[in-house]
Amino acid sequence: MRKKIVAGNWKMNKNLDETEALLAELSAKLPDTHADVIVAPTFVNLATAVNHLNSSVIQVAAQNMHFEDTGAYTGEISADMLLNIGVGTVILGHSERRSLFGEDDAMLARKVKKALEKNMQIIFCFGEELSDRKSSNHFKVVEGQLKNGLFNLPAEAWSSIILAYEPVWAIGTGETASPEQAQEMHEFIRKTIAGAYDSNIADEVTILYGGSVKPANAAEIFSKPDVDGGLIGGAALKCDDFIAIINAI
Ligand SMILES: O=C[C@H](O)COP(=O)(O)O
C-alpha cells in the first residue's frame, strides 16, 4: 500500500551513547504525523534502538544484510539475525554499498529474494551517477537497475517493497535534484513498473526521494505527486532537522 514515509539512514554515524541520545530526543519531539517514520542506525546499535523504541511508532531498519542464512561470511549479518532482534525492514542497494563495496545487481537480486523469503520489508535504493545524467542516460540506467534488481519478482512481492530513488550526484553533496527532476524520474519509475507489471502495482508502490533533502527543500520535493517521502542521510543525524523534514510531509 502506498504510504508517506520519512526514513533516516544514519550510515556509519553515532556511537551507542549518541544513538541513545538521538532516539530519546526524536521520541520526545516526534510530532503527530500521517507518515511512517523509520530510522536505520548501524548494526551494533540496532538492538538498542529496537528496545528504546519499543513503545514508539518510530520503526527501525537495518542498512544492509547478507543473502545467505548462516555460514562463513566474516563481518556479515543475516536476515534471521535482524528478525531475531526485532528488525523487519532492511535498506538494500544503497549507492554506497554498490560503489564502495561492490554490490552489483546480481548480488542485490539475491538479497532482495532472501529478504522477501523472510517476509521483510525492503527499502530498495537505486539512482544514476552524474555522468549518466550528463550523457542523458539516467532513465536507461534507472530502468536497468529496476529490471535487474526487481523485475524478476512475482507481482505479490511488490507489497513488501519501498523504492528509494537516489541520484548519486545528489547524495551528501548539498546538490539536490530539483523537485521537477525528482517528479520526472518518479513518474518514469511508475510508468516503467506499469509496463513490466501493471498500473495497480505502479500506483501502489511507495517511492522515496533521497539526496541532500533538508528542512529547506523537503516540502517542495514532497509536494510532487509521485514523491511519497524521503530517505534522509545527513539531515537525519540532527533531531531538529529530521523533525522539520517529518513536518514537511
Ligand atoms: O540514504 C540516504 C541518502 O544517501 C541521502 O543522503 P544525504 O541526505 O546525506 O544526501
UniProtKB/TrEMBL annotation:
UniProt cross-references to PROSITE patterns, sorted A to Z: TIM_1 (PS00171), TIM_2 (PS51440)
Keyword terms: Cytoplasm, Gluconeogenesis, Glycolysis, Isomerase
Annotated Gene Ontology cellular component terms: cytosol
Biological processes, Gene Ontology terms: gluconeogenesis; glyceraldehyde-3-phosphate biosynthetic process; glycerol catabolic process; glycolytic process
Listed SUPFAM superfamilies: Triosephosphate isomerase (TIM) (SSF51351)
Annotated residues for binding of substrate: 9-11, 172, 212, 233-234
Compartments in which it is found: Cytoplasm
Recorded metabolic or biological pathway in which this protein acts: Carbohydrate degradation; glycolysis; D-glyceraldehyde 3-phosphate from glycerone phosphate: step 1/1; Carbohydrate biosynthesis; gluconeogenesis
Entry's Gene Ontology molecular function annotations: triose-phosphate isomerase activity
Active-site feature positions: 94, 166
Pfam families: TIM (PF00121)
Keyword hit for Calcium: no
Main location: cytoplasm
Taxonomic superkingdom: Bacteria
Enzyme Commission code: 5.3.1.1
Reaction(s) this enzyme catalyzes, per UniProt: D-glyceraldehyde 3-phosphate = dihydroxyacetone phosphate
Subunit record text: Homodimer.
Role noted for this protein: Involved in the gluconeogenesis. Catalyzes stereospecifically the conversion of dihydroxyacetone phosphate (DHAP) to D-glyceraldehyde-3-phosphate (G3P).
Family, per entry: Belongs to the triosephosphate isomerase family.
Protein name in the entry: Triosephosphate isomerase
Organism in which the protein naturally occurs: Croceitalea dokdonensis DOKDO 023
Lineage per the UniProt record: Bacteria, Pseudomonadati, Bacteroidota, Flavobacteriia, Flavobacteriales
